[in-house]
Amino acid sequence: MFPIEVKNLKKSYGSLKAVDGISFTIKPGEVFGLLGPNGAGKTTTIEIMEGLRERDSGEVKILGLDPWKNGYEVHKKIGVIPQDFTFFEKTTPKEAIKYYAKLFNVKADVDTILKEVLLDEMENHVFESLSGGQKQKTGLALSLVNSPELLFLDEPTTGLDPNARRAIWEVIRKLKAKRKTIVLTTHYLDEAQQLSDRVAIMDHGRIVAIGTTEEIIQQHGSGERLEIQGEQPLADYIRANTELQVEYSKTKEKITIPLKKKIDMLTALTTAEQSGMHWGEIQTRQDSLDDVFISLINKPLGEQGKEVKQKSNKKELH
Question: How far apart (Å, rounded) are the C-alpha atoms in residues 301 and 81?
Fold first, then answer.
């Protein structure tokens, strides 16, 4: 059984299609990143999966249960840390965990949970005195009180400094090592790339790419390319004397050549040398997840749909 199964999920607000027929599954023990610009439909999707919002149509199963019809049972099995987590200002992390344990009517090993989220040294400090990262760790601690099978972490590092972000990453990696299934929404693409087994990129209520970061880069990126610092005449010379595709940026004074075969690099550099013209720094480059993300969300909606459908058809053929 998949911890999360979503099929043709739809949710509209008037004429706005917040979620427009998305489908995906999440495997046990997987960290699944949900990415997208503001207004992409991420929060609505998460709230439907958490049982906080009713869907218009489609199927959603969380740990085998319908989160809207069986919300009470689902909430006992999941842990949630919302965006901009906050708590009673005069409460310590230790007191907060005990309070949540009473709410869930469970026995919680307070000391173990505090150590698990790297907060044991701050257990008796009131919430208002904690740093941003320590407040987020308190939220993580509370999400673990009921020993959840599934965790929803919604923007857990937003607004934190780099050191605090890394500390939260360490906690998430520890949870991953314990085979916890985690849904992670984030605006930080490096965070998704570091922590997620797979990611889905949403835009205008649709999933425009899904897979490992490597798969998404391979499927939607422009591939490996050679960049040569040089002027327009050199670009023209390489184009005229090879069968390579050559692009030139006048503002950056950079020649870019897609590398379809390994020999293409040798051909380009040999031709550049034979030209007798000056050329400077060279480097090979591949698209990052950031590059692909920006490319996908800037495409017209129809083009996104065509590309996703074409990729799907190719997979089916193979």
Answer: 31
For the chain, domains (ranges, CATH) are: 4-77+149-218 (3.40.50.300), 224-285 (3.30.70.100)
| Residue 227: strand pairing partners | 256, 283
Side by side, which strands form the sheet with 4-13? 16-26, 4-13, 57-62
Q: What is the pLDDT of residue 299?
A: 65
What token pair was written down for 178?
């314990």
Quick one: pLDDT at residue 77?
94
Pairing of strands 78-81, 57-62: unpaired
pLDDT at 231: 95
DSSP E strands in the chain: the ranges are 4-13, 16-26, 31-35, 57-62, 78-81, 150-154, 181-185, 198-203, 206-211, 225-229, 247-249, 254-258, 282-285
pTM above 0.90, yes or no: no
Coil, strand or helix at 244: coil
Eight-state DSSP code of residue 88: -
